[in-house]
Amino acid sequence: MDKPAYFVHPSSYVDEPCQIGEGTKIWHFSHVMQGAHIGTGCILGQNVHVASGVIIGNNVKIQNNVSLYEGVEIEDDVFCGPSCVFTNINNPRAQIVRRHMYARTLVRRGASIGANATIVCGSTIGRYAFIGAGAVVTRGQVPDYALMVGVPAVRKGWMSRHGYLLAYPDAEGVMVCPESGWRYKEIEPDLLRCLDWDEDRPLPEASV
After folding, report:
1. pTM of this structure
2. Domains of the chain listed by start with CATH number
């Protein structure tokens, strides 16, 4: 029998059939249920639960004590901090079965979710958004690059693709990342765009 192209710690369980990409590592006491899809080059820390139907893209980092329930989709290059929380029912009751009411949650490419943050189901986290530790994101659309903090979470600024808070714009409305030098501009209210690199392109290899 061929050796899998991914690593699973002996203390973890992987229920077949499911899909796990090459180079992915699944560490202690984790559980991947049948029907889950995990891309290439991912890292799942200790005590991570991936439910049936969950989709995880490539190069995703999921830290300890995170549960991804049915209805959650994670795109490429996403970071999920320790003990962050995802829900999939808005009005749960122990005595009422509502599996037919699971709401979709989408975390788009490159977003970061801080430790102990809560993402209420039905939310879409935009590309390269940054959810602060302990924040609670209620249902709705988080803009690309938005820095979201507080309970409930509100936008307190913009983060660059390289993870830096962008300073106030210059006279032409341009903000510059202090690490990469890439320029960003709010082209309309709550819509930030990078002027030097398309949002759907992965970072250049030298930046990884």
Report:
1. 0.94
2. 7-161 (2.160.10.10)
